[in-house]
């Protein structure tokens, strides 16, 4: 493993078990995550976006997510994990949702993140990530603790699906 990448991992592992979103973002910017040598972890799939894990421990997980144009995630939360997403290449569209008193979710905001932007993943974040732009989208995602439980939401009813895995479901090209 590249020395710069190993140093970055070691720095993340030195953070508290439950860092604040601000501390996590500051760490990524201080270590200049934009310069990480992630080429060996960049892999795409025609079936849907591809999740490539760089590092996973009991404390944190680092993954490279690769999206071709038109690929998107399900609407999901991150269970008990917080994190940050660093846009390495391309433009990421993030739709944010809130749970209503009825139990239904409603879209509240759409954000566009560009290369080198950081997007925060809080305990309350419910979102869908897409690459609706020309070109590929590559992100570096960091989760504390590792992403092992997510709730998958839909817009038709209040039912959620629990996903106990580090591999989120993919949605193909629309």
Overview of the molecule:
- The protein is mainly beta and 174 residues long.
- It has one domain: Jelly Rolls (Sandwich).
- It has helices at 3-13, 21-30; strands at 50-56, 61-67, 72-73, 75-76, 82-89, 92-99, 105-113, 118-121, 126-130, 137-144, 149-153, 161-164, 170-171.
- A five-stranded antiparallel sheet has the order 1-2-10-5-8, covered by helices on one side.
- Strand 6 (92-99) and strand 7 (105-113) form a beta hairpin.
- The longest helix has 11 residues, at 3-13.
- The termini are far apart.
Write down the CATH class: Mainly Beta
Global mean pLDDT: 91
Alpha carbon gap, first and last residue = 36 Å
Count of DSSP helices?
2
Q: What is the CATH topology assignment?
A: Jelly Rolls
Instruction: Give the structural class.
Output: mainly beta
Estimate percent helicity. Answer: 10-25%
Number of strands: 13
Give the H and E element order. Answer: HHEEEEEEEEEEEEE
CATH architecture heading: Sandwich
- Under CATH, the homologous superfamily reads Jelly Rolls
Largest pleated sheet: 5 strands, antiparallel
What would you call the shape?
Answer: globular
The unreliable regions are 167-174
Rounded to the nearest angstrom, the radius of gyration is 15 Å
